[in-house]
TrEMBL record:
This is Glutamate--tRNA ligase. ATP binds at residue 253. It is found in: Cytoplasm. The gene is gltX. It catalyses: tRNA(Glu) + L-glutamate + ATP = L-glutamyl-tRNA(Glu) + AMP + diphosphate. It comes from the Bacteria. Belongs to the class-I aminoacyl-tRNA synthetase family. Glutamate--tRNA ligase type 1 subfamily. Its EC number is 6.1.1.17.
Amino acid sequence: MTVTVRFAPSPTGYLHIGNARPALMNWLFALKNSGQFILRYDDTDIERSRAEYAAAIAEDLAWLGIKPHRVERQSDRVARYEAAAEGLREQGLLYACYETPDELERRRNRARALGRPPVYDRAALKLSAEEKAAFEAQGRKPHWRFLLPNFDGDPFATRRTEVQWDDLCRGPETVDLASLSDPVLVREDGSFLYTLCSILDDIEMGVSHIIRGEDHIANTGVQIAIFRALGAEPPVFGHLNLLTTIHGEGLSKRTGALSLRSLREAGLEPMAVASLAVLTGTSHAIEPAASLEALADMVDLASVSKSAAKFDPADLKPLNARLVHAMPFEAVRERLAAQGISGDEAFWLAIRENCGTVSDAADWWHVVQGPISAAIDAQDREYIAEARALLPDEPWSEATWGDWASALKEKTGRKGKNLFLPLRRALTGLDHGPDMKVLLPVIGRRNTLARLS
């Protein structure tokens, strides 16, 4: 069996880190199993779906390193959903209901008041043709519910009906269909809810594994029943714990909280974001993976916790810095050039361990190229003059700084902080920064002489 997974976002806003988690988990699962990844836009909500959001989703996934093997749009498959719905009607498994939202809410409240679960009572199954016609004459349009298989013969005498599956993340799970309302699959305006579209797509696209958030657990029993009503065996399910903010709040596309776009614009590396999004809420230590292939080897769905995974954006900075510190020059050459930095490999290797993001290199390029505001204290002016006089001739290497400092120590008697700090301040305008033995050759003798004047 070929492993096939899917990520099915609604193009109604920008992806946030909570969306990235299932997208990445599906991609990593496909990588680990030499499988296929389908990007499937849930765009049947015509009013809210936007082409620009679909494009942004593709862009965000590409930034993370996710390259779908197949892209589908549910809006292209409406005829298939209509045919499937008609087939369910013919089997008596999809029935017309005419209650308004207010009427349904009153029934639920009444049930709660009587101490009963607020489950739909299937009253619409008792409607005669005349009663349906009367509703139609009032201008009411039916919504359509799927008749759950939780009874023997009499749909009004439900019995406990357990649907079980072995969850990739949570182990054995059970849902009792008798505790649930028959789900609405078709709205009054004839549009389809996600449930029917998703299930039919999964069947026809050969999806073998569904990996998604734990908020879908309660729906899984219903969906398994619909898979079987459509003549298909359900795929394997895995339900991930949900990412929340550090305060336990849910993430929303509408608020833009922790959007991938904002994280990218902040200069964060995709592997820092991916590593934190995937490893948070698992038993694996949170550390930056160098690639998605490496991250795939770190994650095991069975290691996912059952409690919520709190995502702290502050954790991104140290992860990002560790990735930047290990980056070879070839990995950043074009990005440095895009910032107007013409420095070579020696420059990058000299400053990378002082960069939290690649964009921080621009600050160090300014330090190297100048002009800078040299910080020379009055009591150090004679010392700086001595340093200028003793400055070695080129060519320079990493040994030059040590040779220069040794000559100055012998000449002036200075040592430690009094020896090194005035030189660093004069050459960089700062009290801290890269190791001067690697930075000095990058600054060069001409710039050094100018700053010691």
